[in-house]
Task: structure prediction
Amino acid sequence: MGIDGIGKRPLPAPEGTVQAPAEQGRGAPAQRPFTLDPSVASTAAARTTGPSDVQPSALDRWKTGEIDIDRYLDLKVEEATRHLASLPGPELHSIRATLRDRLATDPALREMVQAATGRAPDPPPDE
Result:
């Protein structure tokens, strides 16, 4: 039983196509050299540099001293619950408060915060 194409000569490329370097010499030569439109190149370069108004992350802001550990945790809770914005206000507030409390009290989450920031969050005050 054979497999089609093995041991056979490759088919010639259709007219007007450019072949990859590995294929050149086996088929018809390239009809035109590859060129890049300069307007496309500058647009692509602008996209790769990114926007100039990129906001620093919460961790970067904490490291520079712009915010304290409590504000850092609040920003992380907001980031984690952003997709829940369509929930009613009281329900969203309850979820955020519960998550914020867990970040300050759960040992595993406290360790993660300490690994990221170098400081464990203070436990919430007793009410």
In short: Residues 58-117 form one domain. The chain has a mean pLDDT of 76. DSSP finds five helices and no strands in the chain. The helical segments are 38-49, 58-63, 69-81, 89-105, 107-117.
